[in-house]
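Blinded run. Sample ID left blank on purpose so nobody reads anything into the name before looking at the predicted structure. Input follows.
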Amino acid sequence: MGMARADDVQVNTYTTDYQRSPEVALGKNGHFVVVWHSRGSGGTDSSFLSIQGQRYASDGSALGSEFQVNSHTTGTQRSASVAVGPDGDFVVVWDSSSSGGTDDSLSSI
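Blinded prediction complete.
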């Protein structure tokens, strides 16, 4: 089991209501990405839940600002998962209670 290398860090900067279900992905260079769902958003999603993210350097310092992942902002976006590729790019997937595409069922990805 590893040892903690830093003090606790609050990831979210949007602090209205709640933020839950964080997921973390680590890149080869030690940089990492954290994603979670947030009730409300500092971005453009004013519906029930949105997907937010924050990138970090290997020393734990933030790379840029907290950002909204989802562009479709109707309904609920939740259950995010994140993966980092060998070049440091990352991808986020989540469950949406509505869709900007052709899926008109109860949930889409």
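Unblinding after everyone has recorded impressions. The chain has a mean pLDDT of 87.
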